[in-house]
Amino acid sequence: MKKKTKILLATVITLIVLTVVGFVSAGMYFYNVAVVPSHKTFLSNNKIKKNSPLYAGTKWYYNVKKIHWTQKSATGNLKLVANYIPADKKTNKTVVIAHGYMGSKEKMAPYAYIFHQMGYNVLTPDDRGQGQSEGNYVGYGWPDRLDYIKWMKKVIKYQGPKTEIVMFGVSMGGATTMMVSGEKDVPHQVKAFIEDCGYTSVSDEINYEAGQLYHMPAFPRWPLVPILSGITHIRAGYSMYEASSLNQVKKNHRPMLFIHGADDKFVPTRMVYPLYKASKGPKQLLVVKNAAHAASYETNPKLYVDTIKGFLNKYFK
Q1: Strand bridging mode 164-170 / 190-196
Q2: Which DSSP category does 270 fall into?
Q3: I need a labelling partner for 235 at 20 to 30 A (CA). Which of 7, 26, 69, 92 fits?
């Protein structure tokens, strides 16, 4: 082999190695940004004002008597924590509420209040790696779906076999709700699902946010997102491509209410339409005008609550 050819070959190999190392390093960086639980600068942390529709529920949740529940995660042997709030009058109806990305049971207070006012017992868990639950990664709903089925079974054991359950979630919690809906071992006591602004899949959402937050074009989003998914699979035990709300909701035959803000720029409104279309059971769609991400209730509280009440009245005694 000629000297020039050897030099060219060595240069090409070096460039390939450097490129691979660069992409893997970038993947590790984004794993820490997207998957490792920590303060996220791109999330809003605005305090709830007294004139906000969210205020009454937040205040109520802080003061109401709560029963502290724990369980082990379905995989990974992690301690998970939840608050159970019984209804004012004894009932078999319970809502299980899933929170959003880097959220907690406390942040779901306004929604817990809605259902408690409707006469439901309320269970608000903390997902893996968030709130008071153990874990060093965010599951985006995928490993969490199995944990929520365990929570449901715990509710049934606590309340008895005549329990009736609705699962409700917002944002990542909405995706979690849809991911639960496609599982075979969801207890028959689960009568309905309500999802608010969930994404079609984790890979779709990560790909979208790479463009929105980092203005990243199609390349290098590919191959960066697959590399990130591979790192997540190794370190957190799940693939961002298997974590699909869309594929799960295709297997759902229970009633589901889909809610989305018409001005959602974080989980784009367009995602709700294929999700709604895919569900095989009775279904309803509410797109709230002028509502940004996870702001449908705050934007139009009467429409939001009335729609939920009307939907659940069809399936709960």
Answers
A1: parallel
A2: G
A3: 69
- 46 secondary structure, DSSP code: P
Per the DSSP assignment, residues forming a β-bridge with 125 are 82
CA angle 141, 144, 147 (to 5 degrees): 155
Q: Are strands 283-288 and 256-261 parallel, antiparallel or unpaired?
A: parallel
Tell me how many degrees the CA angle 252-254-259 measures, rounded to the nearest 5.
Answer: 85
Name residues whose C-beta falls within 8 Å of residue 140's C-beta, 6 or more positions apart in sequence: 101, 172, 175, 202, 205, 240, 243
d(CA 94, CA 63): 20
Which token pair is 168?
A: 């409700």
Structure tokens at 201: 């899949």
Question: Which fold does the domain 50-201+243-314 belong to in CATH?
Answer: Rossmann fold (3.40.50)
Cβ-proximal residues to 241 (8 Å cutoff; 6+ apart), any chain: 201, 202, 203, 226, 229
Answer whether 163's CB lies under 8 Å from 183's CB: no
Q: Does residue 1 or residue 9 have the better pLDDT?
A: 9
Q: What is the mean pLDDT of the chain?
A: 94
In the chain, domain spans: 50-201+243-314
**Cβ-proximal residues to 106 (8 Å cutoff; 6+ apart), any chain:** 61, 62, 124, 131
Residue 25 tokens read as 């390093």
pTM listed for this prediction: 0.94
